[in-house]
Amino acid sequence: MVSRKVTILGAGESGTGAALLAKSKGYDVFVSDFGTIKDSYKKELIDAGIAYEERKHSADIILESSLIIKSPGISEKVDIIKKAQARNIQFIDEIEFAAQYTTAKIIAITGTNGKTTTTLLTYHLLKEAGLNVGLAGNVGHSLAKQVIEDKYDYYVVEMSSFQLDGTAYFKPYIGVLLNITPDHMDRYDYKLTNYVDSKFQMVNNMTPDDHFIYYADNELIQEGVDKRSIRSLLHPLSLTESMSAYTANGEMVFEGGFKVAQGDTVLRGEHNAINMMAAISVARILGVNEVSIRQSLKTFKNAPHRMEYVATINDVDFVNDSKATNVDAVKYALDSFSTPLVWIAGGVDKGNDYSLVMESVNAKVKALVCLGKDNSKLRDAFHEQIINLLETDNIKDAVRSALGYAKAHDVVLLSPACASFDLFKNYEDRGDQFKQAVLELKQEFESNALKQ
């Protein structure tokens, strides 16, 4: 008799969802988290009668499993995974597990940058058009948890490379690959080809009835397409060439002559033109009409910490782009503005090559505020290019100093290029503290103006 014992490693949104789905399908489920489990997730497990442990991995229990569903954040190099591999225990990702229990069409979206914006926009376009659609993956609720009831016809799923690594038979109806730039190299043995292969895991099982949307101007992506025998229909995007979708004269142009001016949308910058072309392409494949697309592009609200306008003080705009934790994301941000910038950057450097943004910095940045415990790499990279350079490890000082460097109609941009863990819990905490500091400074200026 085939064992029906499954262990879930990690009890966050993904792991808890996988546990609940496995329980509903008759598996003998055990949940193990090396950290602490949130009370809300504990309650869900207890209510479902699922055994769990926290702050440890009990190998004697876990290695009895026939299947392990692991959190994407757990590296394959950790001890319990190595032991499971030695016993030839299969381990997969929550999305791989969930996909086998739904007949809904899955739209899977990946890329080094822009995943969340594109996923949320795609979901918005489809939902506003009246399609019966769910939101899952790295944004929204666990796919596995939603599949228990399985009430949607479509799921828009944001997927990281780590999640794709845990797939074997996963096959989206529409796959979207936005870009590939070096990231998470420590998880991929510092080999870029391993990271590229991870992203292309998405297309391995796709058929001629499926669709693959990809950004053809990205060399790593185009090389990946050229050397693979991809069976699905191809929909290349470009900022320069006349492909399935491309930009020309400030417009996004699609097959059939459909055009959308970027100025008629709420997203700025070339990177968001790519994101929008991808989302619009999905909507068009699924039959959403042009009127609905145009209307929905105007009502979209992006997730926080992604080129998020915060406030204006003395005619200076403050923009929170705390999610920009690598140089490629910062380049997109810098290139989105035509006005002079005061740039706030810094944190835990992940091996950044700042030469990638040197041209943009030289053209647009008038001052750099380094926010971190160790700013040496930023300082060394830009001290010759930027006359005004200040170092601080305090977010309030950073905001006040940035305003001091700015003149009317300049922009203060928090776009760190680094991880946040030296001074903050995560990029969300960094962005929230930045917004709070800006709003407090705005209130101070307004109070002083009233006293005069």
From TrEMBL:
GO terms for biological process: cell division; cell wall organization; peptidoglycan biosynthetic process; regulation of cell shape. Residues 109-283 form the Mur ligase central domain. Its EC number is 6.3.2.9. Gene3D superfamilies: Mur ligase, C-terminal domain, Mur-like, catalytic domain, NAD(P)-binding Rossmann-like Domain. Keywords: ATP-binding, Cell cycle, Cell division, Cell shape, Cell wall biogenesis/degradation, Cytoplasm, Ligase, Nucleotide-binding, Peptidoglycan synthesis. PROSITE patterns: FOLYLPOLYGLU_SYNT_1. It comes from the Bacteria. Its main location: cytoplasm. SUPFAM superfamilies: MurCD N-terminal domain, MurD-like peptide ligases, catalytic domain, MurD-like peptide ligases, peptide-binding domain. Pathway: Cell wall biogenesis; peptidoglycan biosynthesis. GO terms for cellular component: cytoplasm. InterPro entries: Folylpolyglutamate_synth_CS (IPR018109), Mur-like_cat_sf (IPR036565), Mur_ligase_C (IPR004101), Mur_ligase_C_dom_sf (IPR036615), Mur_ligase_cen (IPR013221), MurD (IPR005762). This is UDP-N-acetylmuramoylalanine--D-glutamate ligase. The lineage of its organism: Bacteria, Pseudomonadati, Bacteroidota, Cytophagia, Cytophagales. The gene is murD.
